[in-house]
Design goal:
Elements (H helix, E strand, L loop, with lengths): L1 H10 L2 H6 L1 H20 L9 H11 L3 H8 L3 H4 L8 H16 L1 H7 L3 H31 L2 E2 L2 E2 L6 H28 L4 H27 L4 H22 L2 E7 L2 E4 L2 E4 L2 E7 L6 H19 L6 H9 L5 H22 L2 H10 L11 H34 L9 H40 L1
Antiparallel strand pairs: 1-2, 3-6, 4-5
Helix pairs in contact: 3-10, 3-11, 5-13, 7-8, 7-9, 7-13, 8-9, 9-10, 9-13, 10-11, 11-18, 12-17, 12-18, 13-15, 15-17, 16-17, 17-18
Length: 447
Amino acid sequence: MASAAEQLASNFNFGAFSKATELKKRIWFTLGALIVYRLGTYIPLPGIDPVVLNEIFSQQMAGILGMFDMFSGGALGRMTIFALNIMPYISASIIMQLMTAVSPKLEALKKEGESGRKKINQYTRYGTVLLATVQGYGISVGLEGMSGSIGSAVIDPGFFFRATTVISLVGGTIFLMWLGEQITQRGVGNGISLIIFAGIVANLPSALASTLELGRTGAISTILIIFLILMSVGVIAFIVFVERAQRRLVVQYPKRQMGNKMFGGESSHLPLKLNTAGVIPPIFASSILLMPLTIAGFSGGQGPDWLTTMSALMGRGQPLYMGMYIGMIVFFAFFYTAIVFNPEETADNLKKYGGFIPGIRPGKNTADYLDHVLTRLTVAGAAYLSIVCILPEILISQYAVPFYFGGTSLLIVVSVTMDTVAQIHSHLLAHQYEGLIKKSKLRGRRG
């Protein structure tokens, strides 16, 4: 652990950071955008009684709505303009990626390059608006049917309340979608992931305090709290270890003679990550599970019998919830890996530049070998994601402990942190290279 910390300290050059003006601007922009997001999670929807809403949600937070509230940074529990968070955009992205893999027209559009990517992004935005509208209307109808001990959650139900709720929720989702894109372009890290990350981290202190309060009152034992903290530390260490794990395939380049000189003959490595899909599968799986169950959770037992039964079966720790969650994680691990890494394209590129894997013939044999290795790695990666996301859920569902110690939240927080730090490090390296180039030019002019 100490050697890892020393390596991180050696990689991070504080002197270079102080001189990297562009990087500092990007970091300040990212922090400012996340502050704007957090402020928006406290702007309530009009026409809702907050006292009644708080009473209702305090009874339902142990279920699937608790996870939704975790991803939204508490915005759902407070029923603010960001209650839907970025989940409709993620759902629309899933649908578009599935459509791209199925539809030849969309696949051809994807291969067009930057122009095709812009069109697909535009279709994703349209899908986001449509999904947010449907979910927003479902929430508005569900809110009208909610009531606490002192009255209804909605002060003046009717068409006007539904219209303002849908407009506010759709507007909030569109703003977060735009904000995430701005962070990706002008800030540091992936904007969508950072928004989810900020929501989870913002609720960690209150979750820790409530857990300690449960220990103080005797609701849970001190030994259990210590065990949960140690388990969280162990899960974090396991996540860091696996996320950095790679399978390096040796790639050899033949020697070539050009004039009187020999070029090539060196060997390099083709790194394949154990978890190529990263944090995408749990986020996608959660989004798919939350989309239909939002309506079930807001029906308050007033909906059809099948909806009530589904809501009961999809509770924390229930076999159906666990089975569907694991199944979706495995599916999206393979699906997203197939999108981001194409063995045939990689084999063609190696063949084009004369590279080959020792013992494997170039072309189709190389593609088959890469596909075989990648499949085995993805099996291990999907198993790792399932264990990290499900095992803590099984343990925690047996006790009254907040969501935030769950494997999914830890996976998102650790993975996003590692990706963001890696981007900061790459910006620092780029800044150092720019400085060296400028110095060499100045020396050349003087010479």
